[in-house]
Amino acid sequence: MFLYQFVSLYFDDNCAEIYGQIRADLAKIGTPISSNGLQIAAIALANNLILVTHNVREFSRVDG
């Protein structure tokens, strides 16, 4: 099957911590992003990954 070639990354405690930090930072400056976007960004940052997206408007607000 096509999807078996991809690895799923877990949203673990480290991701949750990063999620909270990103959310707080963006809320402080009044530029929040969606909860799904926060989750994707946190997983990417926790795993030192490069995030490729067409959603530059939201993800450009996230440092890292």
From TrEMBL:
SUPFAM superfamilies, per database record: PIN domain-like
CDD domains per record: PIN_VapC4-5_FitB-like
InterPro entries: PIN-like_dom_sf (IPR029060)
Descriptive protein name: PilT protein domain protein
